[in-house]
From TrEMBL:
It holds the Pfam family TED_complement. Disulfide bonds join 298-310, 305-323, 317-332. This is CD109 antigen. PANTHER family: LD23292P (PTHR11412:SF172), MACROGLOBULIN / COMPLEMENT (PTHR11412). The lineage of its organism: Eukaryota, Metazoa, Ecdysozoa, Arthropoda, Chelicerata.
Length: 1171
């Protein structure tokens, strides 16, 4: 490397030193260690004292001719009396427990100097040393607290009270103390199915191990981390400007994610004078001595360049050189330094669900003998694994493997079974069985399909003849023999057809000379047709009597056949019913762990608001269990694990300015969603839980600051988009002929509720929140008169609740206005835009049979309005509460939720507060008996007490029809819910919406030799213009035929191409694609996509559901059936789903001819021909 040095003197003259060639360091490749002796170069010390600065330029040219250059500019230390101290070291790679050798030099008489060592803002060591000569060497012991870097500051009090100082920042290696080893032993298990892992080290050491596929490791997914990453992260713990108080370090980044080589060198202080030397070390000086500081003639708002000129402070590190020497851009983070953490958080993840991406994920404690041994199963597929590990104990601290252990091993014989996890009745599935031979010779493998009453094997007749609808089948065990050459694999397709619905287990076994593999795959079998749901919910309140009886109608007949009609009322065997019982007003607590939109509402959750709902639902349930004295340690453990993951997932929707966006790509932030996130995250900052769930306060404060910037001078909060995702957050005024178009009343109340929640913030931000809260309160008080006469009581409900929370003087007036809009039906109280009819009842034999509820015109709006009204009544301790609770429970759409996310989360909060106040658990003792007259002898009893008070107890009713009789006896209350599912295959039997809101047109086309590619074109639009110009966030759900898939990255590219107006997200899960639109309007918006066959499936169901709906008002929907007749008539050989099909590439005859037999047959034919 060529080095050129130029010296600039204080009189303005410059002098070039002789250029020289430097050799690369023998210790580290790519590093040059350079020293310059200016005294020998310039000839005298006097000349050196006149040096103002020195520039160095390095040029390097490699063997290919490529060249790079770099420059360095250094300035002389400011010392008005020309007194200097210099700190240096001769130590390299200092470890904890070793001594760090320090050399102190002085160019004037020093009797005694003082020193201290500071690390991470803490002074760790201080002392003084006599200095009889011009150089002093002493040693400092390195403690664990000094890692990873520490700064040594040396100073002397010279004559005239002048402070002379110097500093040195040096690295301390703390990772090499905890030395442990990991060994893999693959010789112990002769079958090759397991491998032994031996961990040796200090007894009691905690060791975490992670082994991932090398291909996944090359993607840098973050499962493993290297020592350099640990050191870089630890260097950020100082809390100082790491670019002015750091060591000289460099890390090489590998393109294939190999461990990054890392070098660390001590660094002298970046301070140009004594004052800055202390400042850059993180120290503040309190003294009356003279602390030299270079004079700066810069005015306020300006900063000094190192050459004495001035520049605007705000332009530091802006990427442009404002100083002649570019010193305003020195000490800045590299402009091209990638933000790896942000990249990992926001990149498009290619999730592979077809294989196990991680092998070992385990943590252990080393035993008392200094080792721990355990075994893990070997993955079936051959690949290279990288095993990383780290250890920690109280004596030796933290340690890790310097580089991952690379390991390749495979079983001599393995089998892989691929099949769909879901199908519909009557569909014939070709199970793809792949047999691998990693043995050194050819093997015979016997593939066996297990016997089961739940499925049958599909036979193919001679010459590949087989029917699509009614092939020959049997339920016996089926065998097939294949020959597999060494290092090769063989594929066998075994066709089956399910004979029952529900979850069945399919067992496949492969047997060879040296090993046997058995794989069992679960298969969910659903009825064909379009699913329809009916729900009946009734709260049995035994406070007025000790016995109650209810008759619940399933809305199903004994047979689906209608005499003299072609259509059937429902698909045979699809009629199912479930009775769920719980003693709590809120319903079952944690019916699944965790709970989410799928388990609570049967809705997708690929949006930021739904992710936040999932987090909130789990959080509120945990809070309720704690406040009601029903804590469940095991459930809490699983829920906290999900909350931690949910918190990280939600952060991927947070933008750089702190706001939250409903979608990750190209979507403006949302005031509505940001307020919801801030409210829930602040409620999660529970001190008792910080060890299990920690919410970064910066996440909340950053979001609040953005939120406050969206407030108008009048106090209202304004959304960033024209059309709200949730139309309840209506921006426009509800008053007739209102001169002000946008009032933002409901949105302002929504944000005010959040500001009340975060009122306990302190400091400047707390004061800003208080001012914003007062402004929003005054605005709502001012707008109160304008919403009293509105037909929609939602605004008055949310405003009344918000004003009640802030103890507004107008809260009473808002409460009275709210009560004036209360409606009543069958003795129950609610709030709604239109009267809600009482529950439908059918009288049979003078007995009232309660019919299932159907979607109502304003379901979601009525639920959320009534829930806010209940919260207001609870806060004001009003008399009418129980009747509201009964109405809310009577209008559930499922066992665990209502219409959508926002109405459900508010209803959950309201019922939880009511349940805590009512203390029903103290008096609960109920026995519920369920009888089904259509099933003679069917009677089940459930007992509810204070132990299982909130537990979900279910009774399944097979082939349900007719009436279900429910009897309750005892004291307390019981929430009984009847859920009925059935499928239909006629369009007019699909449940119609209460009002026509969407237009939906779906078409399908086929391509490929056997319709292997299916293109679906769907156009949808919003037609309910009398209600609003646009829908809220709209969702299109398209069911896919079994075995067809589309790659998720194709959908990502489709969304990001902006070819479809308002399309914000598209997600594939097995059997379905979900599209999210910001909104739909009167103009049709069409999507076109192609799915392809991945698993061979024949005799597919003919009709698949396609549905479009408003996510936050699901009663606004349109559902239709997609007719796939071409796939319905295909047999198993047309999709090549059986090894018996002679015209398919996977044909495997039961007779295997050897080469000699083929040759003899050919000779016989030739002789016969030429005889």
């Amino acid at each position: 490397m060529e080095l050129r040095i130029r010296v600039r003197f204080s009189n303005g003259l410059e002098h070039d030193l002789e250029s020289r060639l430097e050799q690369m360091s023998a210790l580290h490749f790519g590093i040059w260690e350079i020293s310059v002796d200016l005294v020998s170069e310039l000839g005298s010390l006097t000349t050196v004292n006149n040096v103002q600065s020195m520039s160095m330029e390095a040029r390097y040219t490699d063997e290919t001719g490529a060249h790079v250059r770099s420059s360095l500019l250094v300035y002389a230390y400011y010392a008005p009396t020309r007194r200097h101290l210099q700190v240096s070291t001769s130590s390299r790679d200092v470890k904890v427990g070793e001594y760090f050798i320090v050399h102190v030099r002085a160019d004037y008489y020093v009797e005694k100097f003082y020193y201290l060592v500071v690390s991470k803002g803490i002074v760790l060591l201080s002392g003084a040393e006599e200095m009889p000569f011009s150089i002093k060497t002493f040693a400092i012991p390195c403690s664990p607290a000094m890692a990873p870097t520490a700064t040594l500051v040396v100073w002397d009090m010279a004559r005239e009270g002048e402070v002379v100082a110097d500093a040195l920042t040096f690295p301390v290696d703390a990772l090499s103390r905890n030395n442990f080893s990991v060994t893999l032993n693959d010789k112990k298990d002769k079958t090759g199915k397991t491998i032994e892992v031996i961990v040796e080290g200090q007894p009691g050491t905690y060791v975490g191990l992670s082994a991932i596929d090398h291909m996944l490791n090359n993607m840098d997914t973050g499962e493993n981390f290297s020592p350099s990453e640990v050191l870089e992260k630890m260097n950020s713990f100082d809390g100082q400007d790491i670019w002015t108080s750091r060591t000289l370090s460099h890390s090489w980044r590998s393109r294939n994610n190999k461990p990054n080589p890392f070098v660390h060198y001590p660094s002298l202080s970046y301070g140009i004078d004594t004052f800055h030397t202390f400042q850059y070390a993180g120290l503040i000086i309190f003294t009356d001595a003279n602390v030299p500081e270079r004079p700066e003639g810069c005015s306020s708002g300006m900063a000094a360049c190192l050459d004495g000129a001035c520049y605007q402070s705000q332009k530091r590190c802006d990427g442009f050189a404002d100083c002649r020497d570019a010193s305003d851009e020195s000490g800045c983070p590299p402009p091209d330094e990638p933000d790896i953490a942000d990249f990992h958080r926001r990149r498009v993840n290619r999730l592979e669900r077809m294989y196990h991406s991680s092998w070992i994920w385990k943590d252990i404690n080393i035993g008392p003998r200094g080792y721990t041994i355990f075994s893990v199963p070997v993955p079936s597929l051959p690949t290279t694994w990288l095993l990383g590990a780290y250890g920690m104990n109280g004596v030796q601290g933290f340690g890790m493997l310097a580089s991952p252990i690379q390991f390749s091993f495979s079983r001599p014989f393995a089998m892989n079974v691929e099949m769909p996890s879901k199908c519909r009745t009557g569909e014939q599935i070709g199970i793809r069985i792949t047999v691998f031979n990693y043995f050194h010779t050819e093997i015979e493998a016997l593939v066996i399909l297990g016997r089961s009453p739940d499925y049958r094997f599909v036979h193919v007749e001679h010459m590949g003849i087989v029917q699509s609808y009614n092939p020959r089948t049997d339920s016996n065990e089926h065998h097939h023999l294949v020959f597999v050459k060494s290092g090769k694999s063989a594929v066998v397709y075994m066709p089956i057809v399910a004979t029952t619905t529900g979850v069945i287990n399919v067992t496949v076994m492969a047997r060879a000379q040296m090993a046997k593999e058995v794989v069992t795959r679960p298969l969910i079998v659903k009825p064909d047709g379009v699913p329809q749901f009916r729900h009946t919910s009734v709260l049995l309140d035994l406070s007025q009597g000790a016995y109650l009886m209810k008759y619940l109608d399933t809305n199903l007949t004994a047979t689906p056949i209608v005499p003299f009609r072609r259509e059937r009322l429902y698909v045979f065997g699809s009629n199912r019913a479930t009775v769920s019982v719980t003693g709590d007003f809120i319903g079952a607590v944690f019916p699944t762990v965790p709970v989410d939109t799928e388990s609570l509402l049967k809705l997708p959750d690929w949006c930021g608001e739904q992710t936040m709902f999932n987090f909130a639902a789990n959080l509120y349930t945990l809070l309720y269990l704690r406040l009601s004295g029903q804590r469940m340690p095991q459930v809490e453990k699983e829920a906290f694990q999900y909350l931690r993951a949910g918190y990280q997932r939600q952060l991927s929707y947070q933008m750089n300015d702190g706001s939250f966006s409903p979608f990750r790509w190209d979507t403006p932030p949302s005031v509505w969603l940001t307020a919801f996130c801030v409210r829930v995250f602040h409620q999660a900052t529970f001190q008792e839980w910080e060890s299990f769930l920690f919410i970064d306060p910066k996440v909340i404060s950053k979001a609040i600051r953005w939120l406050l910037r969206q407030q108008s001078f009048e106090g209202a909060f304004c959304e960033t988009t024209t059309y709200p995702y949730d139309r309840k957050m209506n921006l426009t005024s509800s008053r007739i002929k209102d001169p002000v178009k946008y009032r933002n009343i409901s949105l302002t109340a929504h944000v005010l509720i959040t500001l009340v929640e975060v009122s306990d913030l302190s400091g400047e931000l707390g004061a800003e929140v208080a001012r914003a809260k007062r402004g929003a309160q005054r605005y709502l008080e001012k707008m109160l008169h304008s919403i009293r006469d509105s037909k929609d009581p939602y605004e008055i409900a949310i405003v009344a609740y918000a004003l009640t929370l802030v103890n507004s003087v107008d809260g009473e007036a808002a409460f009275n206005a709210l009560d004036s809009k209360m409606k009543e039906a069958a003795g129950l109280h609610y709030w709604g835009r239109e009267p809600v009819p009482p529950r439908a009842i059918r009288i049979d034999s003078n007995r009232p049979h309660l019919l299932p509820r159907l979607p109502l015109k304003y379901d979601a709006l009525n639920i959320e309005t009534t829930a806010y009204a209940l919260l207001t009544h609870i806060k004001r301790q009003a008399v009418i509460q129980r009747e509201i609770v009964h109405w809310l429970n009577a209008h559930r759409s499922s066992d665990h939720g209502w219409a959508s996310t926002q109405d459900s989360i508010v209803a959950m909060q309201a019922l939880m507060e009511y349940a805590i106040e009512s203390r029903l658990r103290d008096v609960i003792d109920v026995t519920v008996t369920v009888e089904v007259p259509s099933l003679p002898g069917f009677s089940r009893s459930i007992h509810i007490d204070d132990i299982n008070f909130s537990h979900l107890q279910k009774i399944e009713i097979p082939r349900a029809f007719g009436t279900v009789v429910v009897k309750a006896q005892g004291s307390g209350a019981a929430l009984v819910q009847l859920s009925v599912d059935y499928n239909v295959d006629w369009q007019h039997l699909i449940t119609p919406p209460p009002v026509s809101a969407f237009d939906l047109n779906v078409k399908a086309s086929y391509s490929g030799r056997n319709s292997s590619h299916l293109t679906i074109h769907s156009c949808q639009r919003w037609i309910l213009q009398s209600e609003s110009r646009t829908s809220g966030m709209a969702v299109l759900e398209v069911s896919l035929p079994t075995g067809y898939i589309i790659e998720q990255h194709e959908l990502h590219g489709y969304v990001r191409s902006h070819r479809v107006r308002n399309l914000r997200e598209a997600r594939f899960k097995e059997g379905e694609i979900v599209f999210f639109f910001e909104y739909l309007d009167i103009a049709p918006i069409c999507v076109t996509f192609t799915v392809q066959r991945w698993y061979p499936v024949a005799n597919m169901t003919r009709y698949l559901p396609v549905k479009v709906y408003d996510y936050y008002a699901p009663e606004r929907y349109n559902e239709t059936m997609l007719d796939l007749y071409n796939l319905f008539v295909m047999n198993i050989c047309q999709v090549c789903g059986s090894y018996q099909c002679p015209y398919c590439p996977i044909f495997s005859s039961s007779i295997v001819l050897s080469g000699s037999i083929v040759l003899i047959s050919l000779l016989v034919i030739l002789l016969h021909t030429f005889r």
